[in-house]
TrEMBL record:
SUPFAM superfamilies: Concanavalin A-like lectins/glucanases. This is GH16 domain-containing protein. The chain crosses the membrane at residues 6-23. One of its GO terms (biological process) is carbohydrate metabolic process. Residues 58-111 are annotated as: Disordered. Residues 97-303 form the GH16 domain.
Length: 312
């Protein structure tokens, strides 16, 4: 009798528990072994459903969860109250740490240097004008200007982009012009270093496009000897011209002294591709160079070496 009377409690308890379950707010029951979450939902009609939600994989969660603590105490203390030094954070193995760097130098092809201390070096250049006023002496090739003519020397190879450098001592004297330049086919683009012999402590930079001067006035550059300008007609200095697709640079003793950018519509000497050097009479430009006093001649400039560096 007791057993039979007890049996009626079973369905009653099930009804009560089910009713309480339906009345609870939606909740989540995590199944950690399967990686699923069961979410209990009820609608307006009292129908209860279980929705299975699969959580995202752990490696897709933000890695800085828990790192934004604000000013809520020192998280670097252990139970003893002493500060614990945290290990220095290292960048991930696939992270590249960038460092300040200098501009990457251009790739070069078939670089050549001519040493003019040897007589055979004359075979590596073209003596295109007044060849008998050219000779090798004291470790250098000399260019002489007489009333008859002055020397012009061409290096036969050409470049599209690159750098040419020479160690040069210019000539002194009013009207005497020493030149080291890159020049293209006529009508010529030019990138020039020129020395006017009446000003022995400076070199001028200038450039031309299609034989037209772009500079209103050449720029003047000096090599310093202590606190004073060096005499460029008595000592050798290194002069370099660099033509790149986007700029032209002039260097004096390894220091860039001038640069122009290829910025259309401003004309740019992009076809100046061959080395020309020598000495000439500037009397016909006496307002610039002065007039030559031939009684003080002959006049000489010289070059110790030429370095020719095409860019690939």
């Amino acid at each position: 009798m007791f057993k039979a009377s007890f049996l009626w409690l079973v369905p009653a308890m099930a009804i009560i528990l089910g009713f309480r379950w339906m009345m609870q707010p939606a909740s989540i029951y995590n199944n950690y072994t399967s990686g699923r979450s069961w979410v209990k939902r009820s609608n307006d009609n009292g129908v209860v459903t279980l929705v299975v939600i699969t959580p995202p994989p752990m490696d897709s969660l933000p890695t800085d969860i828990g790192s934004h603590k604000g000013n809520q105490g020192n998280d670097n203390e252990d139970d003893s109250g002493e500060d614990q030094k945290q290990p220095e954070q290292q960048p991930p193995s696939n992270t590249q740490v960038s460092k300040p760097s200098s501009p990457t130098p251009p790739a070069t092809c078939n670089e050549e240097t001519i040493d003019f201390s040897q007589e055979s070096s004359l075979d590596q250049v073209n003596l295109s004008w007044c060849p008998h006023n050219t000779y090798i002496k004291d470790g250098a090739m000399h260019w002489r200007l007489t009333q008859e003519c002055g020397t012009t020397v061409l290096y036969p190879k050409t470049l599209k982009y690159g750098k040419v450098e020479g160690r040069i001592k210019s000539a002194a004297g009013s009207g005497v012009v020493t030149a080291f330049l890159l020049i293209g086919p006529a009508p010529s683009d030019e990138i020039d270093f020129e020395w006017v012999g009446k000003s022995t402590d400076s070199v001028q930079s200038m450039y031309y496009v299609l034989a037209h001067a772009i500079d209103v006035n050449p720029q003047m550059h000096r090599a310093m000897n202590g606190s004073s300008a060096a005499d460029m007609t008595s000592t050798y200095h290194n002069y370099a011209l660099e033509l790149k697709e986007d700029e032209v640079n002039w260097y004096l003793d390894g220091t860039k002294v001038r640069s122009i950018k290829n910025s259309p519509p401003t004309p740019f000497p992009s076809s100046a591709n061959q080395v020309r050097m020598g000495i000439w009479d500037g009397t016909h430009t006496s307002g610039w160079a002065g007039a030559v006093d031939w009684s003080k001649g002959p006049f000489e400039a010289s070059i110790q070496w030429l370095k020719f560096t095409p860019y690939c």
